[in-house]
Design brief:
The complex is a heterodimer. By secondary structure, chain A is of the alpha+beta class. Chain A folds into 2 domains: 1-34; 43-119. Chain A is 44% helix and 28% strand. Chain A has a 4-stranded antiparallel sheet with strand order 1-2-4-3. Chain A is elongated. By secondary structure, chain B is an alpha+beta fold. Chain B has 2 domains: 2-171, Nucleotidyltransferase, domain 5 (2-Layer Sandwich); 228-295, 2-Layer Sandwich (Gyrase A, domain 2). Chain B has 5 helices and 19 strands. Chain B has helices at 103-109, 122-125, 186-215, 228-234, 262-273; strands at 2-7, 12-18, 24-31, 42-45, 51-56, 82-84, 88-90, 95-102, 118-121, 126-127, 134-137, 140-144, 151-153, 162-163, 170-171, 243-249, 254-259, 282-287, 290-295. In chain B, strands 3-2-1-4-9 form a 5-stranded mixed sheet. In chain B, strands 5, 6, 7 and 8 form a 4-stranded antiparallel sheet that branches. The longest helix of chain B has 30 residues, at 186-215. The chains are: A alpha+beta, B alpha+beta. Chain A binds chain B through residues 3, 6-8, 10-11, 13-15, 17-18, 20-22, 24-25, 28, 41, 86, 89-104, 106, 120, and chain B through 185, 187-188, 191-192, 194-195, 197-199, 201-202, 205-207, 209-210, 213, 218-221, 223-225, 228, 241, 243-251, 260. Strand 3 (95-105) of chain A pairs antiparallel with strand 16 of chain B, so a sheet runs across the interface.
């Protein structure tokens, strides 16, 4: 009888542990999905060009300078886009913005943005 | 002094004092129905409950397993419904003896007996002082058998006295019943492993990351561009098409405004110099095409 109870308790505990783990993962993922910059916190995704393009809403080149320092180059930025991009770069939370260059292309009436950043 | 009980029948229990030399001294008869079996540490079962048999095996190297049923073919009960003692060898006679009892019959009577209680079959564990002494064990009359070294059933008419108790008899703790046979706890072990595996899974799947995020939260940086407000203030002084580059250096707290020509840079520099209210927190300098704004109190 004791064994049956002990076995049942262990199985119940296993089920609870797995369910709590799934719930914790789901909760963590929920928090991460609400944070549009969460990809910068994750080592595997912090240098993913696609995710950076999704966040900034513009095509870009990403150059790794050292293991921790990288440069983002946004070309052909219109004057309408520039304030939105500056706002997004200013609001970066998980990468430090060290230097930002805005270069005007007078003939094309376009801008190029160069941002040098470091990761935590 | 050790208390040893003898269960004669479902109604009758006897208490003996077991001496150190194995001698039994009868103390009293007890009504089994009213007795608390939890007190029992040593119990002898009479032939009312137990059947037994003996056999001589010539091969002296023969060593049966503890749970082997030597007389399975003679038992009317299925293996699952049987409680057996381990086979016991009387070395002096070379006879093996083993006792068995129906599980249902015993468990209902002995349901309260402690698990550590030792239970013996009378026919194997008891011997009289001589072969002429007969005793009543449940419905059967027994006496010693020199041939086997165990008790033998005596069915012929007995002219002598048949004693009812085991007073003065010898007790030898031979081959106890394993009434509470412990099954290997495979299910419990598996459940334990399942719990262990689930903890490992939970750790790897979510807890590790959650703990790491909690203990080492990601650093939050303030990336406000120090010179952006300044540029908003002075942009009216920059003629259309005159500036070609703007640099915000957060480390040196400098903002660089590069013009297409030195003339335009110089002209702009002179204008902003004469408007100190708009650039009050900034030191202004010029290098070729570039006007440099450095925040006061910033790094040198």
């Amino acid at each position: 009888m004791t064994r049956i109870i002990a076995t049942s308790v262990l199985l119940l505990l296993s089920t609870i542990v797995i369910m709590l783990s799934l719930e914790l993962k789901s909760w963590s993922d929920g928090i991460a999905s609400n944070d549009v910059q969460s990809f910068i916190k994750v080592e595997e995704t912090r240098l993913n060009i696609g995710l950076w393009e999704k966040y900034l809403g513009h095509k870009l080149d990403l150059n790794l300078v050292t293991s921790n320092v990288f440069e983002i180059n946004l070309k052909s930025v219109s004057d309408k886009e520039i304030f939105s991009l500056l706002d997004k770069l200013e609001n970066l939370r998980y990468a430090r913005l060290h230097k930002l260059d805005i270069i005007a292309n007078q003939p094309k009436q376009m801008f190029e943005i160069l941002a040098v950043m470091t990761l935590n | 002094m050790t208390d040893l009980y003898r269960l004669v029948s479902p109604e009758k229990l006897e208490l003996y004092d077991l001496k150190k030399d194995g001698k039994l001294v009868f103390c009293q008869s007890i009504e089994a129905a009213n007795f608390n079996f939890k007190k029992i540490r040593h119990l002898i079962l009479s032939a009312y409950f137990v059947n037994w048999d003996m056999t001589r095996i010539e091969n002296t190297a023969y060593q049966p397993r503890g749970d082997a049923n030597l007389f399975a073919s003679k038992s009317l009960f299925e293996k699952e419904n049987l409680i057996i003692t381990a086979p016991y060898l009387n070395i002096s006679t070379g006879f093996w003896a083993q006792a068995w009892a129906p599980k249902d019959k015993l468990v209902s009577i002995l349901k309260n007996i402690p698990k550590r209680a030792k239970i013996y079959a009378e026919s194997i564990a008891i011997s009289a002082n001589d072969n002429t002494t007969f005793w009543q064990s449940g419905p059967i009359t027994l006496n010693n058998s020199d041939e086997t070294g165990f008790a033998a059933r005596h069915s012929a008419t007995i002219h002598g006295k048949v004693v009812a108790t085991l007073d003065g008899f010898n007790f030898m703790p031979r081959a106890a019943f394993n009434l509470f046979k412990q099954k290997k706890p495979y299910a419990l072990i598996l459940a334990g492993l399942a719990l262990f595996a689930s903890i490992i899974f939970a750790w790897e799947y979510s807890i590790k990351d959650a703990l790491r995020n909690n203990r080492e939260p990601a650093a939050i940086f303030d990336n406000r561009l120090l010179g952006l407000e300044l540029i908003n203030t002075i942009q009216n002084f920059v003629p259309n098409g005159a500036a070609e580059r703007m640099t915000f250096d957060q480390r040196t707290k400098e903002t660089h405004l590069t013009f297409v020509s030195k003339t335009k840079a110089t002209k702009f520099f002179e204008i902003v110099l004469t408007s100190p209210e708009s650039t009050g927190d900034w030191d202004i300098s010029i290098t070729d095409y570039t006007v440099i704004f450095k925040e006061r109190g910033g790094d040198q």
